[in-house]
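call fold(seq) -> tokens
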Amino acid sequence: MKKALFTLLLVLTTLSAAAQTKIYSFTAINDEGKAVSLNEYRGKVLLVVNTATRCGFTPQYKELEDIYKKYKDEGLEILDFPCNQFGQQAPGSIQEIHQFCTANFDIQFPQFDKVDVNGPNATPLFTWLKSQKGFEGFGNTEMGKRMDGMMRQRNAEYDKNADIKWNFTKFLVGRDGEVIARFEPTAAMSDVEQAVKKALLCNDVIQTIMGRRSIRKYLDKPVEHDKLELLATCGINAPSGMNRQPWLIRVIENEQWITAVTDIYKKANAEMVKRDPSFKNMFRNAPNVIAVCTPKGESSVDAGMLGENIMLAAHSLGLGTCCLGGPVRFLNSNEQCKPYLQQLDIPEGYAINFMIAVGYPDESPAAKPRDEKKVKYIK
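ret:
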């Protein structure tokens, strides 16, 4: 058990570093004309901004510098990329721009050479940033409405693409190199600061929680036994009421078992299967399945905590998971499945509560919105 836990920690450390590759693979030219690898900012919270010195939003330089001074020591870096694509409002050389910004706003954060952020000559960094967070509107403030009206006069469908719309668009990047949020120039700087504060609080555990997604497409590659064993170990280390540990886990690595129950499923759901050309098995095509069992009639709270442990550990190992209820209902209701349930050696009085599809992901779904209005703080 100690060896398994040590291996888990080793793999977690390795994968945590490996996951931080996206923004760090880019290079930018600084204000001195030198190439800078963004890998130098690994582990920092980044606010990447396209700026201009003759824009109505140029005073945001002062607000950005205030945020920078306040949070630099906690790990924030602001990366400034002047851009002359919007109203030709960033004229002059990068040296002239830098002199203007230091003289008028005393900025201390790094400035880089002028770039294009849209079009055929757009710098790859901003092309990637836009692919991670598209345009979602200027907001309902008076300034937001003015910006929307101005842009819509030029192009009625301006909001249909992810392009940068104006100067001082900001991308917030977490310590893991993933884009967290995009702020248009009309966004309140207080909102930007709040998002920065949250990002600075994030550690590896929180990044794993926030990065986990339900995966429904998997590579045709079984998960190694050692990793499945580590997932089970993480599962049974979940808390439970009075430490009763009422759960049982059945880790299914047997490809023939998955194929056999899937064949039964296909006969019972022929039309539905026919409509899915990518269908391979009834477990979202995952090569492995974990069945979580609990005593019949008891609360599923303990099982839920165990399942969450497994899914978060899987994500940290580069694996994907999806919690499944449909296969459980099918296995319990179809008489032909009884022999295969018996093979799982589930004791009398226990039943499968839910199953977890496990495998190497073949997709990277975006996060779905969460309703923060459902959270209330009682003080």
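Residues 1-21 have pLDDT under 50 and may be disordered.
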